[in-house]
Design a protein that fits this description.
alpha+beta, 131 residues, 2 helices, three-stranded antiparallel β-sheet
Length: 131
């Protein structure tokens, strides 16, 4: 009788509806861009638990970033990512026009400071050089 119950539970677990879940192929850093190459679809029933999973079709259209560090082989949930807003800065220095993604920190007569999307700060002089 005991074996019959175990066999029944085993057969039911095998016949459960498996669904495709997006899982990270590599560890994803904080605010790192999530692309379709970072994600793999894994067929699973209940191993990964999220309220809502990240939709792969939407991932190809939008630019998602991680809200926190995501370990390798972890499910990508909607609450763990955010849609990146476009922050572009355009400067016209006469003969030099510069367009970068980021936000303006400081502007002087000699240079401008821009905070890049990855958190680094770039100083660009008005003659167009990065030094």
């Amino acid at each position: 009788m005991k074996y019959l119950v175990l066999l029944t539970v085993f057969v039911i677990s095998l016949s459960a509806d498996d669904k495709l879940v997006p899982v990270s192929v590599k560890s994803i850093n904080w605010k790192e861009k999530i692309t379709s190459s970072n994600v793999n679809l894994v067929k699973t029933s209940e191993k990964y638990k999220c309220k809502k999973y990240l939709d792969i079709d939407i991932l190809k259209e939008n630019r998602y970033r991680a809200k926190h560090y995501i370990l390798k082989n972890r499910a990508l949930c909607k609450e763990n990512v955010f849609v990146q807003s476009d922050k572009k800065i355009r400067f016209n220095f006469g003969f030099v026009e510069i367009e970068k993604e980021g936000e303006l920190i400081k502007e002087t007569d000699q240079y401008i400071k821009i905070k890049n999307l990855d958190g680094t700060i770039t100083k660009i002089y008005k003659d167009g050089s990065d030094n």
